[in-house]
Design goal:
Strand 4 (89-98) and strand 5 (104-116) form a beta hairpin. The chain has helices at 28-45, 127-132, and strands at residues 6-15, 55-66, 74-85, 89-98, 104-116, 121-122. The chain has two helices and six strands; from the N terminus they run E-H-E-E-E-E-E-H. Helix content is 18%, strand content 43%. With 136 residues, the protein is an alpha+beta fold. The chain has one domain (6-132): Roll (Thiol Ester Dehydrase, Chain A). Strands 1, 2, 3, 4, 5 and 6 form a six-stranded antiparallel sheet that branches.
Length: 136
Amino acid sequence: MSDPGNLVHVIDMPLRWGDMDAYGHANNTVYFRFFEEARITWLTSLKLGLKGEPTGPIIIKTSATFLKELSHPATVEVRTYAGKAGNTSLDTWHEIVDKDTGALYSEGYAKVVWFDREAHKSTPLPDTLRALATSS
């Protein structure tokens, strides 16, 4: 991840015993859940996309690069970055880092589109998010 954008949110999360798979490490879906929880916690802290509001985020593309095996017990720090903003979308990036050692477990990406829940179509990105995005 060469330039993920502006660091906008950090959250600590424990790896639960049940998050591991038969091979004794975190199942790959857990990384996406960490990304999702970090993203939702960040947006909630900004009071954006809350339940019942007419607009909110949807994800149209996501990916992860798995760099290091993650095993229980562990507490990770999930860092969220706001990248480039479009008219209706925002590139977001994530890093999952070991809270104690600083080891980088995974890098992730999600393209967030702001969505009108009643009209079922994209709508302009809130100014709050646009202000946090990188200018490139």
